[in-house]
Amino acid sequence: MTIYNVTIKTGDKRGAGTNANVRIQLIGELGETDKNGYLLDKTGYDDFERDAKDTYEVRVDKELGNIEKVRIWHDNAGSGAGWYLDWIKVELSGISWNFSAYRWLATDEDDRKIDVTLPIVTGIPTPLITQEKMEHIMISRKDEIYDNLGNSLPLKKEFELKTKYTNEVRYETTETTEKSASLTVNVSAPIKAVELGGEASASIKNTLESKYGKTESQEREKTTKIPIEVEPHQILIVSGILTQETRVGTITRGNRSFPFQVPQGEAQFREARFSYKKGDPTPDDAKEMEVILKRAGRSIPWK
Predict the structure, then answer these.
(1) Which of 59, 86, 181, 260 is the most exposed place for a label (fewest CB within 10 A)?
(2) What is the pLDDT of residues 214-246, one digit of tens each?
(3) Of 251 and 103, which is predicted with more confidence?
């Protein structure tokens, strides 16, 4: 008896999970499992939920050699049976075979197929997206100080934040450190062939595009203007921040992992305001204001 560990990754899309009955067939160089498929099901467990990784033991009478293909399908049972499959990993005795899908198995999506056969990429390890989450990445920030402490009349100004940025898919071209793998450090570089080489770089780029769609590298510019009115004897700080909703994660190819970023839509502007009026007690947001004032070489008015 040979036991293969099979890990299934369901995608992180709306409606990606399924309650249908999912079956798999392993096809190797020395043989294949039953054409009726092996039912992937754990008793008392909700299989194939959105963004879940589920691992199963597939038991066969003999070793199949190198796994060249996997056939995966479901019976379309129940409402909302459509399923978005990211990838499949098959493991035996420390050896693994990876199969990318990044597609729907649904009768109302894409090619409407619910039964597909996935080949392994010969000679090139298949990249797999192993971590992902959505973050708001800061593109630009501007802190403007409006000092009207010595005046008895209102001060009218205009705050302007003008930013140029590039909307492009990015990933690191060198192996991750412990920090970058945990997504705590932004270490991204534009997609290009560096240490990886052209073929490997293209395989990662294609995987990201099949998952998130093609993102053309585009130079963009955003200008935001806000009217400002400062009361008499008041100092006002306006912080303008430009962020972009970005999918960040880790893509694994063979034994190496690389952080990536995929921008989602246009950059968004948000603002924060901090103020102090002469004679008032120390403001609640004094710490934030002191950092900005000291950076600009300004004195702290409440001290």
Answers:
(1) 59
(2) 666 778 889 999 999 999 999 999 999 999 988
(3) 103
Among 98, 101, 112, 145, smallest CA distance to 273 is for: 145
The dihedral through the CA atoms of 12, 16, 19, 20 has a sign that is: negative
pLDDT > 90 in the chain, percent: 58
Domain encompassing residue 21: 2-120
CA atoms within 13 A on the CB side of 245: 5
Judge whether residue 189 has pLDDT over 70.
Answer: no
Residue 301 maps to a domain: no
Say if CB 52 and CB 59 are below 8 A apart. no
| One-letter amino acid for residue 291 of the chain | V
Between 258 and 69, whose confidence is greater? 69
Considering the domain architecture, whether residues 61 and 137 belong to the same structural domain is answered as no
284 and 204 belong to one structural domain:
yes
Is 146 in contact with 157 (CB distance < 8 Å)? yes
With a CB cutoff of 8 Å and minimum separation 6, the contacts of 123 are: none
pLDDT for position 100: 86
In the chain, the number of structural domains is 2
- H/E element, 31: strand 31-32
Judgement on whether residues 79 and 180 belong to the same structural domain of the protein: no
* Rounded mean pLDDT, 162-190: 53
Query: What number of H helices and E strands is found in the chain?
Result: 3, 16
